[in-house]
């Protein structure tokens, strides 16, 4: 009996199971982060003396769902000096949303490395299914008499965070749609015509330019928030001192404000665009002034702008500069095929360039409007407390104001790029050349006619050369034909002499034909000889 030990071969984990494990761990890690934050608040007596650790953990579960966008229903009875609270909290702390999003992004990269080409959908489907089960479980386990969430919404709404993180991480790792879904985009694009590919490249470059503009606008909003915090730093510090929360309480309060950091950046963007934002019903914060009334003692609110100042309108330069950056990027991308097409159709550059820029502006409005409206909608919500039921910018108004300013900035950036950056592309110069004049068209037609005449003469010469061997064969078959038809010999001799006399005249009249002329015989004689030659070739000639 063979007792040799062989190493055990382990089977690889199925991709759907690996995706389920990855996303379950992501959900657990992000949930524990929120639990630690709420436990710190409970430890500093942030939930009043009646709060318990179990209650803090339950609130942490609901906050974890709120981070993913699940509305939280509140029904808190009156307690001492605190009045009853009944409402729905829908304001998502987008800063805390970045935690599960970053973890899902990391898992997406890992799953992309573990997947073969075209199999990325398997861990994606398994992971999303596991994330949905975790969301529904957290909703059921955290529900109590005061806070509740819908299990169906808890299972479905958090999937946008998981899907966005996994797909973006997988694409960042593979850098190819073929590796993710098994479809080669390059082969698919090759099926279209060149004009369709140019149009697709133009639209794709325009969408990326719009994304560049919006990202630059987000960076500008973050810069405005930092400037406001430093400018009103004394108000922020005084609010911290007024609360007397202690070291742990101040830390927990700071972490909660960091959870609202992304929301505050969007509010800064809305303020700089002129659309403004609200911090409750019948409140407004915009370039014309700040009207908010009595606000809670949240330190970051000390950075709100005061009465309207003339220099405040300089904030409009933020979206304009962001749009200019997108327009500059679009010029450097070199995919402005609409401008090239107009250069071919319109001879005057002073007219074609403004029209192409106007077309770019019209096409840029839609993607910038959609992106900024989405940001405004994500940062808008309700606290479900008193008058704090409308917080954030109005999504449509914010999107419209931002789209107009970003588009104007894109036109400005494109114009500056044309003036300041020297174009070294030979292809653009070829496409932008003026239309030919009438004289150039007339010359081109004359050259084409001469080429056709030369080709016609060449074909005639080739035909004459092909008839020459036939004449030689006829001379070889002449002795046989003389035996059959001796009476035609005199006619042949006379015909040959007549052709010899006509040859010089033909050469003088048609000097362009370099080869031997075609010998023409009377139709009747030529027909009889051709018929007889065919009979001799077939062996059926008569004696």
UniProtKB/TrEMBL annotation:
Q: Where is the composition biased (Basic residues)?
A: 518-531
Q: Which sequence ranges form a coiled-coil region, renumbered to this chain? A: none
Which InterPro entries does the entry mention? DUF6350 (IPR045931)
Segments of skewed composition (Acidic residues): 477-510
Q: Which UniProt keywords apply?
A: Membrane, Transmembrane, Transmembrane helix
Membrane-spanning parts = 23-44, 51-70, 82-103, 124-141, 153-172, 205-231, 251-270, 277-298, 310-331, 351-377, 397-421
Regions of compositional bias (Basic and acidic residues) in chain numbering: 431-476, 532-543
Do the record's keywords include Membrane?
A: yes
Q: Where is this region: Disordered?
A: 431-543
Mention any Pfam family matching this sequence: DUF6350
Any keyword Phosphoprotein? Answer: no
Question: What name does the UniProt record give this protein?
Answer: Uncharacterized protein
